[in-house]
């Protein structure tokens, strides 16, 4: 099962990713998490990516495509995977089609821009795992601590209001075009296209996503 989660920054991709990966037993491939790991490790990629991410821009297509191709060649991806935050440009999507990566389903989580800023300001993350919470809508069991490890939760550097606005702009300019791209694919490359109302509560979004995917 190869699934893509598509949606604006803060639409709830990471939140729903954990439910889909658990339901299908497939790994999550989040290019955002991979880049944040590189930033934390201080690798040359991380140093370059941090500036771009903090400004709300996109890391170069060739770098991202290389990272993902390497990742999907790993044995744990043989039965499928969940893309979260990738592809997010036409070039990235076309590179996957050219590489013969046919997606079974594209799940678009739809949330209007107005709701996004509030979500981002309340977001807290466990950096090592990518697990995501919201202080009001999806709080951890213990304030400020990850449910699984008990380690500290942090705010992401790119969740400042100006950066979120820039990320939304970039989404509309460069990523939204993928809706038409995947809806218009034909033949073996054509995925099932599913659009979900992401303004509902986390549990309802989860129920809708899993039902649409046949679980
Ligand atoms: P990335 O990490 O992919 O960020 P993003 O796409 O901007 O999305 P987010 O992770 O911010 O949001 P999300 O949809 O996962 O929402 P979440 O579940 O956390 O990318 C970061 C940066 O890396 C990019 O800006 C770019 O620079 C670079 N990058 C990454 N991939 C790249 C690529 N392919 N090419 C080039 N550059 C790339 O939820 C958000 C909040 O809302 C949380 O607090 C959550 O608890 C809450 N919430 C979730 N669902 C609900 C709900 N139903 N109701 C209420 N609150 C909810
Ligand atoms: Zn995310």
Summarize the topology.
Elements: E1 2-6, H1 13-24, E2 28-30, H2 31-41, H3 44-54, H4 61-72, E3 81-84, H5 90-98, E4 105-110, H6 113-121, E5 123-125, E6 132-134, H7 161-175, H8 177-184, E7 192-197, H9 202-212
Parallel strand pairs: 1-3, 1-4, 2-3, 4-7
Antiparallel strand pairs: 5-6
The chain binds BIS(adenosine)-5'-pentaphosphate and zinc ion.
Pfam family, one: ADK_lid
Function: Catalyzes the reversible transfer of the terminal phosphate group between ATP and AMP. Plays an important role in cellular energy homeostasis and in adenine nucleotide metabolism.
Main location: cytoplasm
Characterise this structure.
The protein is an alpha/beta fold. The chain is 46% helix and 14% strand. It is built from 9 helices and 7 strands; from the N terminus they run βαβαααβαβαββααβα. It has helices at 13-24, 31-41, 44-54, 61-72, 90-98, 113-121, 161-175, 177-184, 202-212, and strands at residues 2-6, 28-30, 81-84, 105-110, 123-125, 132-134, 192-197. Strand 5 and strand 6 form a beta hairpin. Helix 1 crosses helix 9, helix 4 runs parallel beside helix 5 (90-98) and helix 6 packs across helix 7. The protein is globular and about 50 Å long. The two termini are 12 Å apart. BIS(adenosine)-5'-pentaphosphate binds next to helix 1, helix 2, helix 3, strand 6 and helix 9. It holds the Pfam family ADK. It comes from Paralysiella testudinis.
């Amino acid at each position: 099962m190869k699934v893509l989660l598509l949606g604006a920054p803060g639409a709830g991709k990471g939140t729903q990713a954990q439910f889909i990966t658990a339901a299908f037993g497939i790994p999550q491939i989040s290019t955002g998490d991979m880049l944040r790991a590189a930033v934390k490790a201080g690798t040359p990629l991380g140093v370059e990516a941090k500036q771009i991410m903090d400004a709300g821009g996109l890391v170069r297509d060739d770098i991202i495509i290389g990272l993902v191709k390497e990742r999907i060649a790993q044995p744990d991806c043989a039965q499928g995977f969940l893309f979260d935050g990738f592809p997010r440009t036409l070039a990235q999507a076309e590179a996957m089609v050219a590489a013969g990566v046919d997606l079974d389903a594209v799940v678009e989580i739809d949330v209007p821009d107005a709701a996004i800023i509030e979500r981002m300001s309340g977001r807290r993350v466990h950096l090592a795992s990518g697990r995501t919470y919201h202080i009001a809508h999806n709080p951890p069991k213990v304030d400020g601590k990850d449910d699984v490890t008990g380690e500290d939760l942090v705010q992401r550097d790119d969740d400042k209001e100006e950066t979120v606005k820039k990320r939304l702009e970039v989404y509309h300019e460069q990523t939204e075009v993928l809706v038409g791209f995947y809806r218009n694919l034909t033949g073996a490359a054509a995925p099932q296209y599913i659009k979900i109302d992401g303004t509902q509560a986390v549990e309802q979004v989860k129920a809708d996503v899993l039902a649409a995917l046949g679980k």
